């Protein structure tokens, strides 16, 4: 299965040994990560925030591994009109890569599907795709 990982999944994985960390582990071992340059830029910018200082080393390690392992695509030219326009790139990357989006951001991603892209929570990914 091909997946796009929302930045909040990486941040949660760096902070807590729980569901999001298990998602990262399973994706790396048994699935294919789809990434775009704009998403990678967001990952890196978030890692540099002051609030991430205690977790920065872990977060940067996760980002570097994702960058090393991922299939990099150019985001598709689509707009879904979600609440936060900055999050459109996740859907556009998933469209371009034929991937499922894994996110904990139910505030902006309120639907289970946007066009061809399924949106799963981290728990849903573990339950359905493991």
Account of the 3D structure:
This protein has 6 helices and 6 strands; from the N terminus they run E-H-H-E-H-H-E-H-E-E-E-H. It is an alpha/beta fold and 130 residues long. The protein has a single domain (2-128), classed as 5'-nuclease (Rossmann fold). Helix 1 (7-15) crosses helix 2. It is globular, with a radius of gyration of 13 Å. The N and C termini lie close together (10 Å). The mean pLDDT is 95.
Report the strand count. Answer: 6
Please, what is the average pLDDT?
A: 95
The spatial strand order of the largest sheet comes to 3-2-1-4-6-5
CATH superfamily membership, which one? 5'-nuclease
CATH C-level class is Alpha Beta
Which bin fits the share of residues in helices?
Answer: 40-55%
Portion of residues in beta strands equals 5-15%
Write the layout of secondary structure elements.
Blueprint: E1 2-5, H1 7-15, H2 19-30, E2 32-35, H3 37-47, H4 56-69, E3 71-72, H5 88-97, E4 100-102, E5 113-114, E6 117-120, H6 122-128
Parallel strand pairs: 1-2, 1-4, 2-3, 4-6
Antiparallel strand pairs: 5-6
Helix pairs in contact: 1-2, 1-4, 2-6, 3-4
Describe this protein with a few key phrases:
single chain, 130 residues, alpha/beta, Rossmann fold, six-stranded mixed beta sheet, 6 strands, globular
In brief:
With 130 residues, this protein is an alpha/beta fold. Helices cover 48% and strands 15% of the residues.
């Amino acid at each position: 299965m091909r997946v796009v990982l929302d930045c909040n999944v990486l941040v949660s994985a760096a902070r807590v040994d729980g569901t999001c960390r298990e998602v990262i582990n399973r994706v790396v071992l048994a699935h294919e990560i789809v990434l775009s340059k704009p998403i990678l830029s967001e990952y890196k910018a978030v890692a540099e925030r002051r609030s991430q200082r205690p977790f920065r080393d872990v977060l940067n390690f996760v980002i570097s591994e994702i960058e090393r392992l991922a299939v990099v695509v150019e985001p598709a030219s689509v707009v879904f009109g979600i609440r936060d326009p900055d999050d459109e790139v996740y859907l556009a990357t998933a469209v371009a890569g034929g991937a499922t989006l894994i996110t904990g951001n139910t505030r902006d991603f309120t639907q289970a599907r946007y066009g061809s892209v399924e949106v799963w929570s981290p728990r849903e990914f573990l339950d359905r795709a493991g």
